[in-house]
Amino acid sequence: MALLAEVAEPDAAPKRLKILGEDMLLFRQTDGKIGLVEPRCPHRGADLFWGRNEECGLRCIYHGWKFDADGSCVDIPNMVPGRLRDNFMKTARIRSFPVREWGGMVWAWMGAP
Prior knowledge:
Layout (H helix, E strand, L loop, with lengths): L1 E2 L11 E5 L2 E7 L5 E4 L14 E2 L4 E2 L6 E2 L5 E3 L7 H9 L4 E2 L1 E4 L2 E4 L5
Antiparallel strand pairs: 1-11, 2-3, 3-4, 4-9, 5-6, 6-7, 7-8, 10-11
């Protein structure tokens, strides 16, 4: 799928991939975890490739929503902290796929969970 050297640095720019006809982003978080996620933010559809890979997640350049390697929303800076923001963070997700590092490559499972 991808060489491990292509995502060797934590917090580096994500790498664009096309796998089985689908656009994806591959990145390494600050903690070293590798993520393979869909490239569009669910909020306004902005391309996460142009966002920032920082502090264990990809931050959307449009409104600042941040998603981790598992596709979970971990920060929404433009909402007041509270129950409404917490509910948004629980439901806002991007599609992600499990990956493993082995033999100098990054492998992904794109089948059913």
